[in-house]
Amino acid sequence: MVEIQGGPAKWERVEQYFREAAWPCRTPSPKERRAARRAFPSDSANSRFLWVDVPVTGSPWRADREASWQLAAVRRATQAIVYDRMLLREESDRAIQPEWQAHSTEAQIWATAPPHTPGWSKPIWWLRRALYRSAVRTGLFDVGLRVHGGRSAAVLDLVRLVRGTTVRDDVDLRPLDGRGRPNTVQHGEDALNRALVFILGPLFAAAFLLVLARNAAPVGVAICWSAALFCICVAGWTALTLPLARTRLGSVSAVLAMTALALVFTLDIPGVKSGVTTAQAVAMTGVVYYSAGLMMLGRRWKWQALIAGVLPLIATLAVAALPLTSRFLHDMYADELSLAPAETSVSGIWQLAAAVKLLWPSLGAVLFIAAGWGIMRYFHFIRPRSITAGATAAFGVVLALATTASAALDSPKAAAEGLKQAAVRGSEPPPYFGVSPEWTCVVPTVPSEKLTEKGGILRAEKPYVSFGVADGQVVLWNPETAKPLHVAASQVRLTPQPSRARTCGGS
Q1: What is the DSSP string of 125-152?
Q2: What share of the chain is helix, strand, coil (3-state, %, to 5)?
Q3: Cα(227)–Cα(229) distance, rounded to whole angstroms?
Q4: What is the pLDDT of residues 141-190, one digit of tens each?
Q5: 66 burial class (0-12, 13-18, 19+ CB within 10 angstroms)?
């Protein structure tokens, strides 16, 4: 119930807005109007009360707040005083009726035994009857008609009506789901969806908590297990309040079976399977979070779901394919090792992978904010077109970029430091997006005084970390000078380092 103040001109303006917005409205009855004026003192010549149906998309929880926000938009658009005096939430849920499929009974005579059937032929007729019922259940005799309704005379009367109005008189019904069984509670569509969320969601949360408890301290283990037990209890209680099976016992049994599957999938069973790692659990949680947020965003705005789900991926791949971006990390890696860009050249696939690594923090930040926006708008925590929420989202994106971009930009330096340490220790050098340095023995094919060396003196008895050949030069890493060593490729021969050998002489 809303109250419009300002006289007939303002009343007409606001009602015109309601009609253009397709919001049904009606005038209260005299009794309702008298009660409203007693509850909300107002001047009858200046104010008017109306019942208005405000459509609210999203969760029914806190829907009254969303309706108030929409009426605030009406006030701004009409420049009139509109008060939301009374908010009554009306459930728009509908009961899910049983579904039936019509099928032909023309072949039923093939499976019906004659009145006087010999005893020796009864197993054959039982087999024919079983085959006929299997064919009916699999839809081999279906006709183009489906019926939604309870298992009552109305459904049978509909079949009789079909028999009387068509050329067919061999039509019968078969159930397509379990809701047509006797004494089955017909739940609402949204109620059933909410129950599934409150069953599967807590079970997923319990599995995630059990993964975290694997590497936690004793106090953390107790907290995680207690929280996981609470989540399992929430799932079981939801199954009791809204049974998914025929009985409550069947619903609890189904929840227990799903809980057992979640525990087997999550926990480590020695000698059978390894459990889910913390990194895998965090990755799955991120995927579920983003999928849920995008779905909730898409239920409200289709075009915003497209922007939040597809355009960031396309933009990331497009920017990563640019020549400047694709070589950025490789050039930083070459600069850390004092190498030329040609000496760290790799295929375009590796350049694209490095560019995606550089850009994925921005992509992740955008997707995280978009999913969070969808979830908070779905549950009416954010006001429509809120400047504060928009500024907070922009600040979150900037903060995420500032904190994660440094990690991506530090990766060339970390890889270069790892290579330098491997060259000193004699361990395996780390690769870096297609740049795969490896230990190599360099055998001169000309006298040592004729070697063309740059960056140090080649010692043939020692293995070197080699980057391959670039511009006719063998590019090696010299741990003595901590700089690259270049030798003419025509003057040396490269051979693999003997396994676990510290010298190239095999000793």
Answers
A1: HHHHHHHHHHHHHTTTTEEEEEEES-SS
A2: 55, 15, 30
A3: 5
A4: 888 788 887 766 666 666 666 666 655 567 788 888 777 666 666 777 77
A5: buried
pLDDT of 131 strictly over 80: yes
> In angstroms, how far is the first alpha carbon of the chain from the final one?
93
- Strands in 292-427 per DSSP E: none
Residue 178 has which token pair?
A: 């379990």
Asked if 362 and 45 touch (Cβ cutoff 8 Å), the reply is no
Parallel, antiparallel, or unpaired for β 99-104 and 25-26?
unpaired
pLDDT value, residue 230: 92
Residue that has been written with the tokens 């008189």 in this structure: 169
In the DSSP assignment, the letter for residue 428 is P
Residue 281: strand, helix, or coil: helix
d(CA 159, CA 174): 11
Cα separation, 178 vs 122, in Å, equals 31
Q: How far apart are the C-alpha atoms of 373 and 371, rounded to whole Å? A: 5
The partner residues of 104 in beta bridges, in order of sequence, read: 171
Nearest Cα to Cα of residue 174 among 94, 108, 265? 108
- In the numeric block, which tokens belong to residue 352? 């694209």
Taking CA atoms, 308 is separated from 36, 44, 297, 312, 365, in Å, by 45, 49, 9, 7, 11
Q: Name which of 67, 58, 53 is nearest 22 in CA terms.
A: 53
pLDDT grade for 227, boundaries at 50, 70 and 90: very high
The residues, any chain, with a CB within 8 Å of residue 266's CB and separated by 6 or more, are 207, 210, 211, 275, 276, 281
Nearest to 102 by CA among 57, 162, 18, 28: 162
Contacts of 154 (CB under 8 A, 6+ apart): none
* Residue 308: how many other CB atoms lie within 10 Å: 22
CA 448 from centroid of its chain's CA atoms: 63
Contact partners, residue 205, CB within 8 Å, separation at least 6 = 227, 228, 231
Give the CA-trace dihedral at 310, 311, 315, 316, to 10 degrees.
-40
Q: Are 468 and 476 in contact (CB under 8 A)?
A: no
What is the mean predicted confidence (pLDDT) over 81-100?
81
Q: What is the DSSP secondary structure assignment for residue 205, as one 8-state letter? A: H
Dihedral-angle region of residue 435 (phi above 0 means left; psi in -120 to 50 means alpha; beta otherwise): beta
Tell me, yes or no, if the pTM score tops 0.85: no
- Long-range contact pairs involving 263-267 (C-beta distance under 8 Å, separation at least 24): 263/207, 263/210, 265/207, 266/207, 266/210, 266/211, 267/210
Query: What SS3 state is found at 60?
Result: coil
Q: Are strands 483-488 and 492-496 parallel, antiparallel or unpaired?
A: unpaired
**442, β-bridge pairs:** 494
